[in-house]
Amino acid sequence: MANRAILAGIIVGDGAPVAVAGALNVSPESFYHGSIVTRGDHLLRAGEAMARAGAVFIDVGAMSTAPYRSSRVPASLESDRLGWAVELLARKLDLPVSADTSRLEPARAAIQAGARIINDVTGLTGDPRLAALVARSGIGLILMASERRARTPTGTAGRRPVRRGRAGTARGGRRTSRVGRSRSGDEAIDTVTARLAESLAIARAAGISPSRIAVDPGIGFFRAQPMSWHEWDCAVLARLHRLRRLGRPVCVGVSRKSFIGAVAGVEDPARRLPGSLAAVALAVREGSQLIRTHDVEETIQAVTVAEAIRRAAGDA
Hints:
This protein is α/β, with parallel strands linked by helices. The chain has helices at 40-53, 75-92, 104-113, 130-137, 178-206, 229-238, 258-264, 273-285, 296-312, and strands spanning 4-7, 10-13, 19-25, 58-61, 97-100, 117-120, 140-144, 213-216, 251-253, 290-293. Helix 5 packs across helix 6.
């Protein structure tokens, strides 16, 4: 059976071209300052530029979700930001708007403002009320895999990740063997698959049609594992094709993320575009069918070339 979904009227998955969604943030605390727009005229111009470049929808975030940042804001503030941004973009742009949130109140504000997709980085585990809202609204849903960890009152994870060196060596320890890294890579994709299966079960129990769901492996969101986060992310991307067993289209967001900085030695997210495009091309080769990015025009070019190579290999 084909892995296909319809997100806000957009067909994503087998038989359709790889889709590209533009990412904008109205949260000043977001990790990549180049994606932050807090003025209405700037937000509209940024959305229009993404639409002209070929984005199929715009994904708007109103609170940073980076797991290594203490950036949680009150739900009321996220609601105000998200409702304002979604209403402006949905009213002015001729393409759907997605809301990047995992909480009920901001999601409700976004839907009332015209959002047609919810992009939940907790995979419906962050707020038990969100699944019912999505089911009632009949909108699209992107479920992301992430670590299921309790949070402290400040919004930071309560368990620290294991720190490892850039070459797969635990600080103060010995280099892991190639066999060990391979086994850990298999465990990484199996963990991601299990998390997504849990989220799909929650969606199914709430009455959300699978035909409206895409899944996301959560690149950058696994920090408390027995391998470094950048090794984890690379291992998952290298095995992305295994997520097909879930029967849902795969969305990937690698744009300017910290694993690129760790691998390439580039601390500033503003200088990570080349690494982002390399990761996008690999993700498409491995079967990703939806890409979320801060850089729509450049990413579409990378996706087009990667798709052509994939077709030449007979994998399309």
